[in-house]
Amino acid sequence: MSQSADQLFFSICPVFVVSHVSHRLGLLEEELYAVGERALGLEQHPSGLGALIHSRHSARYQVRDGGNVPAISARADHSETVLLGTTDINQGGQIVVRAEAPLWRLEDLRGKRIGVSHSLDEQRVDWWRANSLRSIHIALRHSGLESSQVHLVDVPHAPGNGPWRGSDGSQSKEQRTLNLPFTPELTALEEGRVDAIYTTQGRAEIYERTGRFKVLADLSRLPDWVARIATTPYTLVASKALVEERPQVAVAWLRANIRAAQWVGEHAREAAEIFHKATYDATVEDVLRVIEGVDFTPSLAPRNLAGLTIGKNWLRDNGFIRNDFAIEDWARPEFLSQAWASLQATQQQGVA
Q1: Is 173 exposed, middle or buried (0-12, 13-18, 19+ CB in 10 A)?
Q2: Per its UniProt entry, which superkingdom is the organism in (predicted)?
């Protein structure tokens, strides 16, 4: 299929979703080929605006796997999409301060400045700001502080609506992570313009290994699963036009991801090597710790849908989305059921 109006595009966020594995193993291409389909990454979109399309899900035939904030924003305000599956993984996030700072507990942030990324891009939801603000508020409340008892400092950064996932191959993962354009608050922290920031696990470990920063609080250790919602549960989302006109794509994608999840369960180190190349975590050993015990099988489990509802309502109540919708209506479980049924039928035929 050429790059025509019928072209299928996809994108995968640099997070722990099994589409990375199904793509790297060739399972995705195999399952799509079996139904006469072929997908191109958004980095190949002829407009050169893959980053914007990734965020707003604006291609007619598109699949996106990754963080839930852009997916929720796209469904609320930009595009008709359907939710095919979710992945729950305990990420939570961390509050980071300078290593030499005399700060030992979250309570020590009383009266201090917490830097928050602020994108000047009006075309895309400010997903990192949303993640940061919600998690900062939760961390403060767990320590007995209110937001009014600290100073939230916006740290702006310019829009970045270019190709999807462009990167400087001359830089190491550590260098790229320390210079991400959407995290200018890290520079503000190092320069002393703020006293603390929020980040996620893989990046926090890289920050700490420089010797210049330390983790003050780790939300992933909280017993409250709602407090650990950041950009998770991750969401596998497809254009509504795609599943209505070419439903075989949705089933094929889910088949590939189910097979990949089974492979991850049997090949942890090999899977960690794949995830290491796709995420921010510094080493394969770091990744092994993250994925231990995680079930990457696509799911529409009640707790995952509840988590998405909680996150969606927070985005609505804090002005990150304009229009509301029901997560239960967004989810389309029939495609997951068809994928499982077809895989079981294939296995039975193999036995026979």
Answers
A1: middle
A2: Bacteria
Sheet with 39-41: list strands edge to edge.
39-41, 8-12, 62-66, 234-239, 81-87
301: left (phi over 0), alpha (psi -120 to 50) or beta: beta
Quick: pLDDT tens for 240-278: 999 999 999 999 999 999 999 999 999 999 999 999 999
42-101 residue pLDDT tens: 999 999 999 999 999 999 999 999 999 999 999 999 999 999 999 999 888 999 999 999
Give dist(CA 125, CA 128) in Å, integer.
Answer: 9
Identify the residue whose tokens are 């509301």.
324
Q: Which residue in 30, 9, 63 sits closest to 298, CA to CA?
A: 63
Instruction: Please report the pLDDT score of residue 2 as a whole number.
Output: 46
The predicted structure's pLDDT at residue 1: 41
Q: What SS3 string covers 231-282?
A: CCCEEEEEEHHHHHHCHHHHHHHHHHHHHHHHHHHHCHHHHHHHHHHHCCCC
- Those residues of the chain that have pLDDT short of 50 are 1-2, 352
Q: What are phi and psi of 171, to 5 degrees?
A: -95, 145
- Ordered by start, the domain boundaries in the chain are 9-88+232-350, 94-228
Give the H/E segment covering residue 341: helix 333-351
Measure the CA–CA gap between 161 and 99, rounded to whole angstroms. Answer: 34
The topology under which CATH files domain 9-88+232-350 is D-Maltodextrin-Binding Protein; domain 2 (3.40.190)
Residue 63 · residue 237 · CB < 8 Å: yes
Mean pLDDT of the chain: 94
Q: What is the DSSP letter of 28?
A: H
Q: DSSP string spanning 44-83?
A: G-TTS-HHHHHHHT-SSSEEEEE-HHHHHHHHHHT--EEE
Contact 115, 155 (CB under 8 A): yes
Contact between residue 34 and residue 89 where contact means Cβ atoms under 8 Å apart:
no
Nearest Cα to 134, choosing from 171, 92, 99, 191? 92
94-228 shares the fold of 9-88+232-350? yes
